[in-house]
Amino acid sequence: MKIDGTAYRMIRREAGTGKVMTFDQTLLPHRLVPIELASMEDAARAILTMQVRGAPLIGATAAYGLALALQRDASDANLAKAIEHLARQRPTAINLKWALDEVRKAVEALPPDARVAAAFDAAGRLCDDDVETCRRIGEHGLGIIREIAEKKGPGERLEVLTHCNAGWLACVDWGTATAPIYMAHDAGIPLHVWVDETRPRNQGAALTAFELGAHGVPHTVIADNAGGHLMQHAQVDMVIVGTDRVTANGDVANKIGTYLKALAAADNGVPFYVALPHSTIDWTIADGFHIPIEERSPDEVLKMTGRLADGTMASVEVAAPGSGAANPAFDVTPARLVTGLITERGIAKASREGLLSLYPERRARGRGAI
Ligand code: MRU
Questions:
Q1: Is 244 assigned a catalytic role?
Q2: b/e map of 90-124 (b: 16 or more CB within 10 Å)?
Q3: Cys bridge to 172: 130, 205, 301, 360, which one at CB 3.0-4.6 A?
Q4: Candidates 1.10.287.130, 1.20.120.420, 3.40.50.620, 1.10.10.60; correct CATH number of 2-129?
């Protein structure tokens, strides 16, 4: 995607220098600052501190992190140690484990001196695959947007609501939930996006609003609690969100608050779509109650970070002094509340059969055999 006419990928290996470069998302939307990931420790820290975040980008960063670890020491022991270290940085997005598995499979049978190049190649392929996957998600989602827009009538603006950031900042390019939005906008379908601010870290207000603005997509940031009201007043035609893990039965883990939007959508007859790449499906888990939910620092709830008038960043206290806070970072939306899953292979019902209809190769393997 482009910012001021320049095309960016969220993570890439520079051709001449071999440096692995990404952007520090903790500084957005105020500053777009490139950072180098020079070691596995840098990659792990970037994931943990959310300089990079979003399920596909966490996976891509871990893949490069593993290649960087092997650059230092390509032994079997270090391969296992690096995988274990990177995998434990964030628990909910399954893309992290998936990406590490992909790189491991690409290198483990090779002699140590062939592993580094193979690992960087695998990480690069995984990134290219993510871009193409998101592009296809966009094409399939565009079909749904067209259908809903046509029902509204010519020239009438389609109202889309999204939660968190499942855009190109969360992936390598395009995004998952945002790819159909960008394609619809580019195709001249008039649309407007309600962007949930997404407390406590404000990925909607800071990141999704930034991306949509950079692409010229009309949007409005709303408080997380406003979505239900807008739906009751027929101001939302569809919801599209991303996800960190979809279980074999179609349950969906995504940023905390997604479940409440799905409930409000169901109560108001608003279609609720989830966009995801194949790398987000966890075929080993029967249902969403088994997904590990990340607990983050209470400080994210008790404080807010932003830019002051003089341009400096500051953190301010927003809760009563002495109060504690709980901060579950994700919730699970049961499959029954999901209208459809938008994948790179097409649209599926959120159910075991729905998913297997798009990924029939999984049928033969059975549960737990991935
Ligand atoms: O905590 P974050 O910012 O990593 O959470 C991100 C989300 O919840 C996204 O919706 C999800 O990863 C999908 S990204 C295409």
A1: yes
A2: bbbbbbbbbbbbbbbebbeeeeeeebbebbbebbb
A3: 130
A4: 1.20.120.420
Rounded-to-integer distance, Cα 231 and Cα 198, Å: 17
Phi, psi of 153 (to 5 degrees): 110, 150
Residue type, 11: I
Residues of the chain with CATH 3.40.50.10470: 138-365
Domain 138-365: CATH superfamily, name plus number: Translation initiation factor eif-2b; domain 2 (3.40.50.10470)
Q: Among the options 244, 251, 282, 331, which is catalytic?
A: 244
What phi and psi values does residue 330 have, to the nearest 5 degrees?
-140, 160
Q: Is residue 370 predicted with pLDDT exceeding 90?
A: no
- Distance (angstroms) between ligand 1 centre and the Cα of 241 equals 9
What does the pLDDT average to over 93-116? 98
Please, are residues 180 and 167 in contact by the beta-carbon 8 Å criterion?
Answer: no
Predicted local distance difference test score (pLDDT) of residue 369 = 43
**End-to-end Cα, the chain, rounded Å:** 33
Q: DSSP 3-state assignment of 56?
A: helix
Token digits for 168?
Answer: 């190109």
What is the pLDDT of the chain when averaged over all its residues?
Answer: 96
Give distance in angstroms: CA of 214 to centre of ligand 1.
19
**Ligand 1 atom nearest 170 alpha carbon:** 14
